[in-house]
Amino acid sequence: MSFLKLFKKPGLIAAHRGARSLAPENTLKALQMSLGRCDFMEIDVQLSSDNVAVIMHDETLKRTTDVKSFEEFKKRSPYKVCDFTFKELKKLDYGEGEPLLTLEKALAFVQENAVYINVELKDVSGNFEDAFFVSLVLEQIQKHKVEAYVLLSSFRHEYLRLVKQKMPNMPTAALVEDVHPENLLEYLKDLKVEMYNLNDELVDADTVQNLRNAGYFVGVYTVNSKKRKNELFAMGVNAIYTDKLYLESGKL
């Protein structure tokens, strides 16, 4: 089954940055703990200074690592991910002793377990060429033969255009926060995306219905309430991204 066939199913649950209520976010353990507890997983990818694709959400290392405890890194504030080499990043603790997760390892996990994953392309345009970043990610997806299991999303929509140029059949999702693009349906058609992912504060029933009628899948982030989850699914939302996966119940 392809990712787009998965989205034919109603009421999908996505593990936001993996099962981050059960393990440190964006780590291999967070992905492992997501197995059987969601319909697909979501991770974030960016680049080290020497062009290794690493799984990390924040632009800096302060929140999710112990970088400030290293004497050798004391003068490296604000500790931007893109300022550290892969070798340096591997020295850090990513929570509870978890090591750095690379895109390579994440896709190997996808291949081994035949699970679906949404890879968000973080905006690294200030430090790396768009085409270089997109090509690097696509090469790894092809290397692991997981094209059918991956959805690529980004707030930087230029990346999504490049994805479609290089791999027209790769599913893509436009990420937005707080404001819709003008002429939304025309905009999405021009982007050639299959999905529109918006924050919970922006969503409304009319917009969801218009998107669904136009053939787009709709995802909403970040939803940590069962009541809100049910409201969104009643609107016609296809998937919600949640931080709250529980051991005892399996799903939010």
Itemize the secondary structure elements and their pairings.
Elements: H1 3-6, E1 12-16, H2 28-34, E2 40-47, E3 53-55, H3 86-89, H4 103-113, E4 117-121, H5 130-143, E5 150-154, H6 157-166, E6 172-176, H7 184-191, E7 195-199, H8 205-213, E8 217-221, H9 226-235, E9 239-242
Parallel strand pairs: 1-2, 1-9, 2-4, 4-5, 5-6, 6-7, 7-8, 8-9
Antiparallel strand pairs: 2-3
Helix pairs in contact: 5-6
Structural features:
18% strand, 9 helices, TIM Barrel, 9 strands, 31% helix, globular, 252 residues
Structure explained in plain terms:
The chain has 252 residues and is an alpha/beta fold. The chain has a single domain, classed as Phosphatidylinositol (PI) phosphodiesterase (TIM Barrel), CATH 3.20.20.190. Helix content is 31%, strand content 18%. It contains 9 helices and 9 strands. The protein has an 8-stranded parallel β-barrel with strand order 1-2-4-5-6-7-8-9, surrounded by 4 helices. Helix 2 links the parallel strand 1 and strand 2 (40-47). Helix 5 (130-143) crosses helix 6.
